[in-house]
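User: I've been trying to design a sequence by hand for this structure and keep getting stuck. Would you show me what you'd pick, starting by listing the structure so we're on the same page?

Assistant: Good idea, let's start from the same input. This is the structure you sent:
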C-alpha cells in the first residue's frame, strides 16, 4: 500500500476524532461537562458498576487522568462511587440521579452527531465501515498494549 494513502487514512481518523471531541465539548458545555467527561459518563451508563481501572482501559487513558475526571464528575453530582465488596481497594462507579436525568439528552446529541457523520452512506456502507474500523482498532490496540507494557517495565 502506498505511504501517502496509509498516512491519509490515519490522518482522516485523527481529524474526525478531533472534530468529534470539539463538537462534544460544545454540545455538553450546557450540561456543565468539560471536554472528554461525557465519555466517562456514557461508559458508566453502559457498564453499571465498572471500576476505575476498567474505565481507564476502555477509554485508553491513564489511571491518574481517570481519577481526576471521575472525582470531578462525582463532585458535580453525576456519578457515585461505592467500595467494591470483593476488593476494598476498588471503587465501583454508578450513575447518580443527575446523570440519569441528563443522559437521554446526551444520547440524543451523540446520535445527532453520528447521523451527521454517516449522512449519505447506505446501510451496507455503514456495515462495511464498521467492520473496517473494528479491524483498524484491533490492530492499533495491539500496538497500544505493547507500548503500555514496555512503558511500565
Amino acid at each position: 500500500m502506498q505511504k501517502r494513502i496509509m498516512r491519509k487514512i490515519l490522518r482522516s481518523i485523527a481529524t474526525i476524532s478531533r472534530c468529534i471531541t470539539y463538537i462534544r465539548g460544545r454540545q455538553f458545555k450546557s450540561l456543565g461537562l468539560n471536554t472528554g467527561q461525557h465519555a466517562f459518563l456514557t461508559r458508566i451508563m453502559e457498564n453499571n458498576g465498572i471500576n476505575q481501572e476498567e474505565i481507564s482501559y476502555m477509554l485508553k487513558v491513564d489511571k491518574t487522568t481517570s481519577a481526576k475526571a471521575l472525582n470531578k464528575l462525582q463532585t458535580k453530582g453525576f456519578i457515585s462511587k461505592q467500595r467494591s465488596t470483593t476488593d476494598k481497594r476498588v471503587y465501583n462507579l454508578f450513575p447518580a440521579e443527575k446523570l440519569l436525568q441528563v443522559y437521554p439528552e446526551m444520547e440524543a446529541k451523540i446520535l445527532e452527531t453520528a447521523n451527521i457523520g454517516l449522512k449519505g452512506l447506505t446501510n451496507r456502507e455503514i456495515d462495511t465501515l464498521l467492520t473496517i474500523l473494528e479491524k483498524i482498532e484491533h490492530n492499533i490496540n495491539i500496538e497500544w498494549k505493547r507500548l503500555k507494557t514496555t512503558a511500565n517495565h
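That's my pick for every position. To get oriented when you compare it with your attempt: Helices lie at 3-28, 37-46, 52-59, 63-75, 97-118, 123-151. Strands lie at 79-83, 91-95.
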